[in-house]
Design brief:
about 130 residues; globular; mainly alpha
Amino acid sequence: MNANLLLRIAMAIILLTHSVSGMFNNGINDFGNLFLNQIGFAPYGVFLAWSIKLSHVVAAILLLVNKYIKLAGFVTIFVLIMGIVLVHFKEGWFVVGGGRNGVEYNFLLIIVLLAIMYPNGVKKNNL
């Protein structure tokens, strides 16, 4: 059994639930139209929103089958960092408690992805 199997499963569940639900409740289209288009991504907001969510689905599948882990990780980390920059940073650190909608959750997901991508730490030849 792979040492990070539980982290890969947990991350896949998070990515799938965060993306698939929006596919059935118009959340992805709303995010594209009502947020991304409004902050300067028009007319590509809906395309970007769907691209982001589909990248989550692909990353989740790759994590589950333990293939192309670094590619899936880098793409997802980029998406999470952009989420911090565009959405969460202005709200502060806390998701709940000391604030609302902050960066702490994305930060944790990024660290988990890095742990999955580099289970033995970062070495000169495994970037």
